[in-house]
User: Fold these one by one.
Assistant:
Number 1:
Amino acid sequence: MLDILRPPFEKIPDVKVAYNVGCLLDIPTGTYLIGEHGESILNGGLTAFTGIVGIGNSFKSLIMNYFTTVTLWRFPESLCNTYDTEVNISVSRLENLCNRYLELRGYENNPITNGRWQITDKTVYFANEWYEKLKEYMKTKLTNKAKLLRRTPFLTRDGKPFMSMVPTISQVDSFTKFQTEDVAIQMQDNELGDSGQNTSYMKQGASKARFLSDLPKLVGLHDNPFLMTAHVGKTIAMDPRAPQVKKLNYLKNGDTLKGVTDDFLFLTTQCWQTLNATPLMNDSTKGPEYPENSSDSIKGDTDLILITLLQLRNKTGRSGLVMQIVASQEQGLLGGLSEFHYIKTCDRFGLGGNLQNYYLELLPEVKLSRTTVRGKIDNNPELQRALNITAEMCQMFSLWSHIKPYECTPKQLYDDLIAMGYEWKTLLATRGWWTFDNDKQPVPFLSTMDLLRMRKSEYHPYWLEDDKKTIKKKI
C-alpha cells in the first residue's frame, strides 16, 4: 500500500557537503555525521552560498579569500573563478595569500600562477556576459560529472560512500557593484541628473534578483560553492515617523545591504557581517598584541587586526552568533591565532599556568607567552593541532546543548586518554578536516568529536591497532 501512495519524486542528495576551513568557522556552521568507519566527520565550513557583508574596509574580501585558499589547499583538484566588479583586486596579493600554505607555494603549486584560480573583472565582461560564461562552464562540468565524482567519507542512507563532484568555487566581489550591459549603456547615454537614469537602478535590481533566483540550483547541481561580498549602508527614511522594518532578524535597525535585493538575505546559506575591525594592539607597548617575532613590536604597527563577526543568517546552525577572528593585513586570516585568542577570552579554556606564562593543557610541554605564541603557532604543527581541538571543544560546549554528556576539560581529555593507553603524540599527528578519499591520506583523520567519544569508550580510531599506539599499515 505504501508503495502505491509514495509520491514518484526523485530525492535530494543524502548529504549537502560543506568544506572544513577552520579559524572557528566550522563548528557554528556544521554538524557531525558518522562515516563508513564509525568516525565522526564535521560537515561544516564553506557551505553552498556564503555572503560576507560590511562597511568599506572591514576585510570582507580577506575573509572570502580565506574560505577559498583553504579549500583549494585541502582539495587539490578544486578550482576557483572570481568576478571583480570593483576592478581593484591585486593578483599578486592573492598569490601571496596562497603562499601562506606550504602545499600552495611555488610557481607550479600556487593556484594563481598555475591557473586553478582565475580572476576577471567588468573591464572584460559585463555581469550578464560573465554569467553566461559561467553557465557554459557549469554545463561542461555537468556533462563530465562521471569523471569528476569523488568519494567522500560521508555515507548515503543505504550505507554506501557518498560521492560528490570536485568543488569549483565562484566569487563575486562585490555584488553591490554587479552591473549588466543594458544598465551600463543606459547610464552612459544619460548625463548625471537626467531623468533617463531614473529607472536604471530598478532595472539593475531586477537583473540581480533574476541572477540570485538561479543560484541555488546552479550551486547545488554543480557542486559549485558561491561566495559574495556586499556593502552595508544606512537606511534613509523618507518619512522619519514611519516605523523601521527589519528585513533580517539580526540586522541592526538602520542598516541595509546596498544594491543586493532582498533575495540575497533569503537565499544565502550563511551570511556573515563584519561589525568592526580594529587594530589588535597591546595596551602597554602600543605594538601588536601578538608579535610575530622579537622585531615585530613596533609601536603603532596596525597590521594585526581583530575582526568582529555577526552571523546574520545560518541555515545549518544558530543565527545571531557574535565571534572574533584575528587577521594580518599582510598574511590574511590567522586560523591558529584566532583559535588561541578565542580560548584565552573564554575564561582561558584549556590554558594552564599564569597570566604571563602559560601552556595548552593538550600540549603542556610547550611553554607560551603573549610575545611568543604567534611565532610558535606558525612553526609547530603539534601546537596548531592542539589549539584546533581545544577551540572546537570550547565552541561545541558553548553552542551545542546535545553535547553535554561529553563535556570535559582539555586536561581531563588528555589525562583520561593517556590513562586508557593511547599515545598522545600519535593522536596529535592527525588532522580534523575531511577531504576526498579521506582514509587514504598520509595524515590520519581524527575529529574532535572522535576524541570525546574515545574518552567514553564509544570509538577507537580505525587506523590504529588494538594496542592504541601502532598505526595500521593497511586500512
Number 2:
Amino acid sequence: MPMRALASDHMPSFLRFCAVGAVGFGIDAGLLTALLAAFPGAVIGARLASILAALTATWALNRRLTFGSHDPKRLAEWSRFAGVNGLGAVLNFTAYASLLHAVPGLAPLVALTAGSALALVFNYLGSRRFVFLGGPSGAS
C-alpha cells in the first residue's frame, strides 16, 4: 500500500493505526525470528528486543501517517507513546509468555500473534487520547 494511500483522509485513523501495526508486527515477528535463529533459547530476551524495535518504528509511522502529529516535543511524545504502548506491551508480553508456558511446543509466532491482538485496541485508544496531541487526528 503506498504511503499516500495510507495517510489518506478517507481512511479512518483506526484502519491507519492497524496498517501501521501490521508493519510493526512484521518488524516484531521478523526480528523475533532472526534473534531466535541466532539464539534459540532466548525466547524472552528476543521478545523484549523485538518489542522495543517495533515500538519505535510504530511511533514514527503513527506520528506521521495516523495522527498527523506536529508536536515539536518529539521526545515527550515518544515517551508518552512508549508509556501507553509499554502498558500494551505488558499485556502483549504477558499473553505471549503465558501461552508459551501453558502450551508446551507452541510456536513463538502464534503466541506473538495472540499477544499483539490483545494489545491492539488498548494501544489505539491510549495513543489517540494521551499521545498524539499535536495533530488533526489527535485527542478529541
